[in-house]
Design a protein that fits this description.
- With about 120 residues, the chain is mostly beta strands.
- The protein contains no helices and nine strands.
- Strand 7 (about 80-90) and strand 8 form a beta hairpin.
- It is globular, with a radius of gyration of 14 Å.
- Mean pLDDT is about 75; it is low at about 1-15.
Amino acid sequence: MVLSAEVGDKAFTGGKTHVTSDRNVFLITGGIHNFKSILLKADEDKRIKLRSKKFGVAQDITGMSGQRVYTVKIYEADGKGYISLNLENGEYKVYFSLRTMKKENWSQLGWRPMMRR
């Protein structure tokens, strides 16, 4: 989840980012208390409006609908483009390409621990 102060990066307003995943996974956008979880279905290309450069990928989900607790890894993209989520050895690897879907243009994104304020 993105902390509220980080929401609204001007590089992301007005457009959508292409996101794909090889498995069903939840992508998290928004603030720590005001967030949106988006189900990405396996092998589906989805266009999502990210509100900042940062987004989360749910690693674990507990609880019932309306009271879910998400364990999330936070990633930061370099701009609008293409994001690919791939499960490798039991962990999601996140790749980013600014302009094209060609594999030689992808770079792996590292995740950051979220600091609570």
